[in-house]
C-alpha cells in the first residue's frame, strides 16, 4: 500500500492517479494520522454503470395540472401582483 499526505494528494494527484491505474491502494495521511484510503475501481464495475440522462421537467403539463385551461384576466393578474407585494414586506 502506498502512502501520501493530503498535501501530496492535492499537489501531485497525477501520481496518485497513476498508482491507482496500476491497481495500488493509497493511504492518505494528515499529520501522520490516516484519514482515508483510496483504491481503484474494481474491473467488474468499470464501464457498467448506466449513464443517467437528465430529463427536463414538463412545466407545461405541471401548469395544466395546477391551473387547467384557465386564462387569467388582466384585472386578476394585477390583483395577484398587488397581493404578492403586500405580503413581501
Question: What distinguishing features does this structure have?
Answer:
three-stranded mixed sheet; 89 residues; elongated; 44% helix; YefM-like fold; 4 helices
Description of the structure:
This is Antitoxin. InterPro entries: YefM-like_sf. Belongs to the phD/YefM antitoxin family. This protein is of the alpha+beta class and 89 residues long. It folds into two domains: 2-38, YefM-like fold (3-Layer(aba) Sandwich); 59-88, no CATH class. Helix content is 44%, strand content 17%. The protein is built from four helices and three strands. It has a three-stranded mixed β-sheet with strand order 1-2-3. A hairpin with a 2-residue loop joins strand 2 and strand 3.
